Please model this.
Amino acid sequence: MNKGRRTANTDIYRRVVSLCSSLVRPGRILSISLHGLRAMGYEERGLGLDVLMVLGWKRRGIGRYIRHVDGEDVHILTVDSGLLKLDLRWSLLGDCLSERLFMPYIPLVGADLLRKWEVRLKKRIVLEALEELVWESPELAHELLIHPEYFIHEYINRRSLLRPPTFQQFLKMLAKDVRKRNIDAIMAGFTQAIKELADEGWVRPSDKYLRVGRRLLARGSGTPIPHMAKLAIKRTARLLMNLNPWVLQHQLYEWLVCTRRGRPADTPQPSRLEDSRSYLYLEVGFGQVSLSDDTTLEGFVRRFYPGAETHVQRIGWFLACTYLLTLERNGETHRVVVKNFGEEEGLKWIPVAFWALGAKRFAILGWARMRREYVATRLLRRHGVPAPEILYMSPRRLLLFKEYIEGRNLAEIVKEIALRGNPTQEERLLMRKAGRLIARIHQLGITLGDCKPENIMVDRSGELHIVDLEQAAPEGDCAWDLAEFVHFLAFYTPVSTTPPFLPPVGTLAELAKEFLKGYVEGGGSKSVVKKIFSPKYTRVLTLLVPHSTGLLAMLSRKLED
Model:
């Protein structure tokens, strides 16, 4: 801005203050601030001036004045400080007043007081945004890396839904020529608000990002149903506050004013608002990925394995949407497991959920299963439990790219043993290792939910890896994991071709016994082991594996010996 323009603006600001002082007794004025397009960096004439005047009297009230200064319409909104504070703290008037302190503004009188109110508002905005993250995805919240600009765009997107007339104002604020100026102006208040919240334990700084603070995570702990109820109540309250008669009148007034005013000239504006999720990140093996990432399988190859020759092979059973991606480049072979949580749309898990009703609750939606896999994998790897690393993920496409483990799954080994009979000492030790692995996972507060032998890989060195965690959850049913593992020992084994057409239950019972012994040796509870014979589980699992009944009877006798 050149010297002449600065002088002209200073003169207009002085005349606005003089005008406000002529409307009310000067001793009652706490602050005067300039808002709207002028505060956003637009200097054209004819755009009008929006002024907020906060008064120090006790009488509750809001007033409006329309005056003229230097050929410009001046719209003055007066409000008592008590009513403003109620809107700042509780959004009593649907943030119609508070919103002015969220947007860029120019303080004319009472700058320190305006900044204090601005920081108070932005602390509330940050806390509300963090609470929603915790309530929507409690298991994922502690893993999120949050860029501070997230709070700007989350608020803008939410306000645009509640108050469509403000949508155009936000677009003008984020126009290319003025975006950086306005974001920097808004972030100044957020920076102070975040600093204070960090001191209070609500957030944790992490380099240029933030993490949800332990204080908020502790307050948000509990079952998902209260979280959903709180979220519904909060959103309903916001909607009701925006149906306040004064709020509706204010929106109509602002819409009429905007339609009468001129438009900023030659200023390219975005056609839509930014996705706030692009400011939320998760750590993966290849760096960080935002929740708005929509990388395709082809895009993944181009980015991380440019020029590689690719081959895609479906693996797993026919309803599983899991693929083995083989990449050949410079004489080297790389393998990546790709799980597509969006392709099946829960096709596999919908009948399973009904089948297990009353015994086990399964996640069905793709995003829910994807985040369970991510969170459980991160937790297990942090504690040294072998699990394939998550190399990359595409939240929008619901694609998960995981490390490939060379080896055989435990189901194949069980099948070989059952067909041959008489497990070797090495094979017995392998089953005990599987039991100890599950016990270790349970001690970390995680249950697998889908604990089948085929989900345990044995690598070339004999180490066991958990490879499928999409149903893993904190504080689940440990006995279900054990019961499912034991029943599925019979699932993979062919029945005899002669009467009574049963699998080799003696051999399978020996393997199950070793598995359960390993579980107890690894710190698992004996009381949990006893529960696997409960009708709660047998009535469900024997429907899928009818010939597991003989296995359970034989196992019960062996455990009593």
